[in-house]
């Protein structure tokens, strides 16, 4: 059987090299009896390789020889074929069970389908990940200790010292999942929520909220954050803070809206809704646009608030925004407009906006079936409200031809039915010959 060919050397941290696998085992670099690269447990046993790989943060510099050619993931149980190629056992066995009689990498025909455990490579992989796992564990312990220190500091300091402590803690919470548990277990959530109130500076509030949105909040913390004074602070920062602060404020409000005791009165604020519209329209920050539209969509699920959203001019602003939105944001904006079309003032606002019909017609059959469904629903609401005025405008904008495309497409039966109904509504003010010409039909379709 051909022997597995290893690269000439691997470089370890600290500048050391493994010239070959045999030398690595002989010199004790690999985990074994007293190898320097192994990681012992309480009883001197190795930590499970799979556990180390799962717990480690994504590692980008994994040597290519450790990667299974099939899954492109580090191997836990490497086995070698008769061709000399090595694979993760489960992956190659699945390949063989599918009836393949070739090597996946070289496409050579296999003269023997036996797989041989590559124990030497397994030891090397274990040693390599053990080294990084040790560093990871030590760093994790260090940052957890520092996080605990910062929480104690926050109980004592004020002013700029408090801001600096919060900044450092926020970076640690964002970058280390272990710190999130430390903050929660040390009573940090209650401490952070206590920092928010009517007299909190925006500098402190911004950092505290930036931490809270990265933690798992329980019902008690949620109820605390829904106090009017705290919500008022969040709304102020959403209107006046940096783009990161604004996004974090939307994330916090969205988290609160998922709580079972949430009340729609909490988001029934003209200042909040106006701030979200400014955020959604800010072309300099696409992430802000996404955050603003996402929260507006969630708020629209509360029917009581829809009238307020219309009152801040959201309909015309969103309609005018449609041509400038990327595909991933269009569905959000159309969903909001569709929700607003369910109330009388929303339908009137859509009708009175001169860009509603042309922009909605343009989006039919252009982005996705969901976008087509929302655009069609909006057009139906407008044309049904004022058929003599709006149906003619829609036909002139090319609606009839688009509706025929929907009817002939693979869209859902509901969409096709609504298209047929809207097509019939639009045809009432035209003779058959004139309407056919408006549809811009080809001779074949006619």
Automatic annotation (TrEMBL):
- What are the protein's GO molecular function terms? ubiquitin protein ligase activity
Which EC class is this protein assigned?
transferase
Q: SMART domains under this entry?
A: Ubox (SM00504)
Q: In which pathway does it act?
A: Protein modification; protein ubiquitination
- Any single biological process term in GO: protein ubiquitination
The UniProt keywords, alphabetically, are: Transferase, Ubl conjugation pathway
Where along the sequence do coiled-coil regions lie? Answer: none
Might you give the EC number(s) for this enzyme?
2.3.2.27
Going by the entry's taxonomy, the superkingdom of the source organism is recorded as: Eukaryota
Residues in domain U-box?
61-135
Explain the purpose of this protein: Functions as an E3 ubiquitin ligase.
Query: What's the protein here called?
Result: U-box domain-containing protein
Q: Which organism is this protein's natural source?
A: Elaeis guineensis var. tenera (Oil palm)
Q: What is the lineage of its organism?
A: Eukaryota, Viridiplantae, Streptophyta, Embryophyta, Tracheophyta
What's the name of its gene? LOC105055853
